[in-house]
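The instructor's notes for this session suggest beginning with a concrete chain rather than abstract definitions. Hand out the sequence below and ask the class to guess, before any prediction is shown, which regions might be ordered.
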Amino acid sequence: MSILADHYYRASLDADRAWPALEESTRARVCVIGGGFAGLNTALGLAERGVGEVVLLEAQRVGYGASGRNGGFVFGGFSRGEDALLRELGPQRARALYQGTLDAVELIRARIRRYGIDCDATEAGAIWANWFADPEVLRARQRLLAEHFGVEWQWWPRERLRERVRSHRYHDALFEPQAFHFHPLKYAQGVAAQAQALGVRVHEGSPALALERDGAGWRVRSERGEVCAEQVVLACGGYLAGLRREVDAAVMPIATYVMVTQPLGELLDGALQTRAAIYDSRFAFDYYRPLRDGRLLWGGRISVRDRSSRQVQQVLYRDLLRVFPQLAGVRIDYAWSGLMSYARHQMPQVGRIGEGLWLAQAFGGHGVAPTTFAGELLAAAIAEGDERWRELSGYGVVSAFKPAGLVAAQASYAWAQFKDWFKDKSERRDR
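After discussion, reveal the predicted structure:
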């Protein structure tokens, strides 16, 4: 096994687009800080609504963080479960928020078509495979989605699942036909390019070093320039900018791990007879998908530790062989980790946090559609005075209690892993 430099998504770009650093003082109606999906979608949403003078600042590269390194799954919902949303918000509000993420999935599809974004979009759905013998968890979620959210996931018995996923690890599954998967970094760069084409000034290598009041607006200082803006959007995710203490204190940067195999040829057909994206029913689940070039992308685990490439490979390779022992000996060409932002309440933090100051963060674990949803909410709020963002105000900027919160998060994850292990062991003993 060997590891190539950087991550697969960067290495597999046909052309690695670049944008210039900010090197002047300029004025803007809106300054977006962060070139991940939340910031990019906000900027593009503003441009599509005819808002001019939008500047986007990215400290590293467009899609540098979780947005350009994630599993590439595009499906509805949030990290917080649908049952919890029902309890906390009631059926009408819960359904409206969930529908917002489904609409975001369709908006992503529409933008790919409308703007000709070549991002390896694969329209094959997603499979939620049951790690455990008890089918009730799947059946209960299927009923809840149908009854309260108007969403129909298809039941797959064991025989049908094993025709498509050649593993004895799973029992049955739910299939989500509306889902798809894509190359997230190609998509991020495509969104940035389209935003630029519509008038947004995009700047990479331009960290926001200070955020200060400037009359009725804001002054954002970078290394070699500054932006005086009427309104500012903070969309920094797990890579905290250090601009507002209460904003940084509200999220925990959590690492997740991904690896990509060598091109597998017939070996891939021996493991998968589907192009769908797949994840399982454990709390600490695996997620994986076949890639256009015959490789298998495999992800999983979360941790407060950002591991080295070799450590990621060692951890995930064991997980891979638990599901597909027939892939023993395949080479791993890429392995990486990256930071996501999680809030204590497991929901995005989206909305206005001061006069002319907006926030979009905490999308960890389920971010592609919710970041698009958030971008639409903020763009509509800024451009049109739309107040739908208030539907998320109950999940606000609450302290993550760092560093104790990080320790608690790791302990909670370890406990969930233990429960998964104990349930699996108990089922095997009973058979």
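Then share the key points. The longest helix spans residues 82-115. The first strand starts at residue 25 and ends at 33.
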